[in-house]
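Retro notes, item 3 of 5
We never archived the inputs for the 1,3-dihydroxyacetonephosphate complex last cycle. Fixing that now. Sequence and ligand:
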Amino acid sequence: MSELLDRISELKNSLNAVILAHNYQTGEIQDMADFCGDSLGLSVEAAKTEADVIVFCGVQFMAETAAILSPDKTVLLPDRFAGCPMADMITAEQLRELKGKHPGALVVCYVNSSAEVKAESDYCCTSSNAVEVVKSLPADKEIIFVPDKNLGSFVKERTGRNIVLWPGYCPTHINITVDDIKKAKEEYPDAIVMSHPECNKQVRDVSDELLSTGQMLSYVKNNAAKRYIVGTEEGIIHALKKENPEAEYICPTERAICPNMKKITLDKVLLSLEEMCERITVEFNVAEKAQRALNRMIEILPKN
Ligand code: 13P
Ligand code: SF4
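Structure as it came back at the time:
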């Protein structure tokens, strides 16, 4: 293991590479990365890095986002099959059709979407800033929100805005059920329930806090509570323990695992640096339009 880490570190230095990892990655990937974060934090990091190579330990749309924001860098995804099923739930063609049915509406797309869908959108958002992004739009405008119906309805509840939803969802977050949360609450009545807005409404309604993964980390850092029930992908628990090791974190179900996030391993990171693969690129015309939507998102700071 330490040989593997040494080799990764050597190659990283010689290639002037930076390793970015999402909070759902395995503990060993998080510990090895130069920067761990939520989708927004990683996008910001990808946009400002001075490295020549970005190794993205996450899923395709994240690496694509990095390639759009840093077109002059080489972006590598250590497993090209690490996709996001939610991002695949809407195509650019389907979005164009929906826009045709709602002329004049503004389109906000969750960053968990393809570059083509971003290119068809006015604004991008992540779970950290979705509410702020929507609040920043003119009050009389209809808003199309794609692809996550759960994040979309959370935003609708928080803003009271006229939002058209698309029926996409995260297969991992919908594995967390209201019964899982209730059972965990019975066992640990003193625990604070923090859930991700990708969870379904029933789960959201029994949660104390609805937070992106980055917001969960800030929350436990600034909170005196000693126990948390965590309604999101289990990888975040590794990061939470590092942020606040004094507290206990309860995962309400064993099914809260994103199999795509877990495709990235240390061996694959090493191979990707050795062979400079899998390179993620986005066609210029698509990237140019998608970048507009992403830049508008980055300009709107989240309230962590
Ligand atoms: P955040 O880390 O931005 O909360 O995103 C959650 C997610 O599901 C990413 O795929
Ligand atoms: Fe996609 Fe859900 Fe996995 Fe995030 S956790 S990458 S939204 S499938």
